[in-house]
Amino acid sequence: MRRLYVYCLLLLLAVNSRKLSAQAPHSSTSKPNIIIILMDDMGYGDPECYNGSGYHTPSINRLAAEGMRFTNFYAAQATCTASRAALLTGCYPNRIGISGAIMPWASMALNPKEETIASLLKKNGYKTSMIGKWHLGAKAPYLPIHYGFDEYLGLPYSNDMWPVDYDGKPVTDPANPKFKYPPLPLLEGDKPIRYINTLEDQGELTGIYTRRACQFIKKNKKQPFFLYLANAMVHVPIYASKRFLGKSGVGLFGDVMMEVDWSIGEIMKTLKEEGLDKNTLVVFTSDNGPWLTFGDHAGNTAGLREGKGTSWDGGQKEPCIMHWTGTIPAGTICSNLSSTIDLLPTIVKLTGASMPANKIDGVDISSLLLMKPGANPRDEFAYYYHRNNLEGVRKGNWKLVTPHRSQTYKTYMPGKNGYPGGYAEVNVPGALYDLAHDPGETQDVQNAHPELMKELEALADKYRKTLGDDITKSPCTECRPAAQINSGEKK
């Protein structure tokens, strides 16, 4: 009888061991999987756990409740191409010759000599995939599979770069600026597999991308992988699938937010079902702030100043949540300064990959994720815009704004129903803001802090000496050229 009891006990232990093994195919010492979910034009205040109202984002809320929510996380620049180049390379975009949002016919592209998160992880044994908006080169060989990604499904540039008007109808008038755009292709690798021709087609993208992301996770669950999911939404023209249209009760933007939230829930559910959640770092953030001129089709900044296309915090301060079950403490908030350029060195550290050969600007923020006492890897940040304009610097909670020209949304009424409002250009005087007490950048306190002004002006000069500044005609001594598509030469 005793032998039978012992035998049954051993059998039970063996069965439980197999169950645990099936749930956790990676050992505690294996390389972590990495997923970066990058939203397009999502404002700091758009997720419900940041300030979103009227609609619900339970999956994003859960991501924050189980992970770490960042409150001082910045995109490197407030526009599409520059921001994405920075995220993938760990560099301020001006360091690598990238600026603005390039057009489908642009001659500029990310230089293939630049090492990306994907290329570094691929060399370290990772399977790599990109899904969604690329916007770093419109044609081969300047598409993702030439920059370290094993596979790619997505749009080569922004979803509004198409010959379709704001009402969703094809443009037939040559005088309309949209007439010059080519048809918008959905690419598999380097080749189009279909075209996005209607608003209904736009509404399919979130579902298409989500299904592919889940397939990639399941297919590669037994090896380390890197997934970069760059969503089309909530960049205009926004649209949702039939399943979500009209469901929020607060308009199309709310419907789209609900579908985006569903997408994140599907990805997290897949990780858990495949036993990968304890060995996967998930980063959720946005490329820049909301495109406020589109009014009810744009998001919100939670009271931050201005939005996309400006170096005010409404343009660059982003929602960011990092989730890693059992490694990042659940329900935590990080108020330390950090940026998308910090993702590359952090991921390199966590995965044991090698750093790029060329100089980068990001710093390893893994100490923040692990909540190491006293950790503060980034204490300063440079606000560059346009080709190479230094429009501000931040140190701690203090932001120095340098004199510059800026777009503003405040002069005109915002648009409605997918149509934009207007812009104005204004001269911005130099100013000092205490972001701890004035996150909306409303009160210039430079006269009360002359010593701080000297310190921050010296910091600005430090950046001018290396990365340059077109405003003061300071040359960049450390910049590297972008690729020149048409001639194959370097800029």
TrEMBL record:
Record carries keyword Signal: yes
Superkingdom: Bacteria
Keyword field: Calcium, Hydrolase, Metal-binding, Signal
InterPro entries: Alkaline_phosphatase_core_sf (IPR017850), Sulfatase (IPR050738), Sulfatase_CS (IPR024607), Sulfatase_N (IPR000917)
A Pfam family of this chain: Sulfatase_C
Domain Sulfatase N-terminal: 32-353
Region forming the signal peptide: 1-22
GO molecular function terms noted in the UniProt entry: arylsulfatase activity; metal ion binding
Protein family per UniProt: Belongs to the sulfatase family.
PANTHER family with a match to the protein in the record: ARYLSULFATASE FAMILY MEMBER, ENDO-4-O-SULFATASE
Protein name stated in the entry: Arylsulfatase
Organism per entry: Niabella soli DSM 19437
